[in-house]
Amino acid sequence: MSTPLMENHDGFSALAATDRVAGQLYTDPEIFEAELEKIFYKTWVWVAHESEIPDKGNFKKAMIGRQPVIVTRDRKGALNVLLNRCRHRGASICEPDKGKANGFTCPYHSWSYSLDGQLRGIPYPEGYEGVIEKKDMPLQKLRVESYAGMVFASFNQDIEPLEDFLGDAKLWMDRFMMQGAGFGIKVQGEHKFRFDGNWKIQLENTTDGYHFPIVHRSWMASVDAETADMLSFMTDENAVTHALGNGHSVAIMVPEHVELDADDGTEELQERFRHIIDELSETMPADQVRRIVRSMHGAGFNLNLFPNVAMSMSFFRVLRPISVNETEVQHMALGLDGGPESVNRERLRIHEHFQGPFGFGTPDDAEAWDRVQRGANGNPQMPIMVNRGLNRETTGTEGWKTSHVTDESGMRESYSQWKKMMGND
């Protein structure tokens, strides 16, 4: 029997069904352009972690779809997200990726702006007397709100409050931050790379436990037995995925590390961290040492926040759609803000081993993503299947659709939100 094709009779939303999505979601430039307008320019998009802009005057650049923005902390300590575009002739006013400044000055004609986007100065203003008022020409400001240190922005001024959009994901964001072990969380470093594939391929990957022991076989063979055993979740019935609503989902791979603050004392600390244990024990009580060492690998889950950020065990994975067949991925390693330097150094080495540019994990993932894109060009109307685990998906008392972590409940949740936002209304 041939595989049924999916036809676009009722707009783009018809291309996503409960158990499958059309392959052209990866390949059709028209769909990609509509996604920018209907998703990335309409909903909340992650732009920063507060540790990147801790002090007044700090800023960082970010992108929402194709539109460049600046995230700032102004003189009053408030967060702002501003379009990186001078109101005069449209030149970008900020080029460094991050830094500290008193404001921004356009290099073209020196129009200058404050950190909250107000137009402060115009050189040779005689030509504008009676023409414009500075108060009427601020930088475009986006809606900005944060939760658990995660900063989101939206071009849609009428959008629902961020906390409503995050919904049940807030519980998991709070749990994710427990890896600070009593310290705050900070971004330690980052790197970016691009792959030749559609952004949704990466969106799916963070909630795809099915591929892990197959694609990451080389990484599993490179780590100590305790770490390999910790991530051997294929037959662990407590390793599950919850669909949290609004496109968000959480994939639990290490159930005993869901709530790192909860510790019954039975888990043995990994011997690979003996040098850390010995060092910290010289100055810290045993319970604090244990709390820090249990958190070395981060939280025991990947939290996917639709549409562009994953809080993935011990790092953030941020995706940026470049074109229908190209995506930029940013990995941000996390550490303890004010915590022991040796701990943060060890966390960086763990991050590099899997997610780093020369790590075992990311190159393998990127090869798989490239191949999905190449394959999807063969008969793009043929569906991509997202039906794994439908036969064992249940709904718990929280209202979360739940199945095994190797199932595709998280992908179905993402496409449910995609379908909702890509409708014709």
UniProtKB/TrEMBL annotation:
Matches recorded under CDD domains? RHO_alpha_C_AntDO-like, Rieske_RO_Alpha_N
Q: Where is this region: Disordered?
A: 393-425
Keyword annotations for this protein, in alphabetical order, are: 2Fe-2S, Dioxygenase, Iron, Iron-sulfur, Metal-binding, Oxidoreductase
Domain Rieske: residue ranges: 44-153
**MF (Gene Ontology):** 2 iron, 2 sulfur cluster binding; dioxygenase activity; iron ion binding; monooxygenase activity; oxidoreductase activity, acting on paired donors, with incorporation or reduction of molecular oxygen
Mitochondrion listed as a keyword: no
- Co-factor requirement: Fe cation
Which InterPro entries does the UniProt entry name for this protein?
Answer: Rieske_2Fe-2S, Rieske_2Fe-2S_sf, Ring_hydroxy_dOase_asu_C_dom, Rng_hydr_dOase-A
Q: Does the keyword tRNA processing apply?
A: no
Protein origin, superkingdom: Bacteria
What name is this protein filed under? Phenylpropionate dioxygenase-like ring-hydroxylating dioxygenase large terminal subunit
What is the source species?
Paeniglutamicibacter cryotolerans
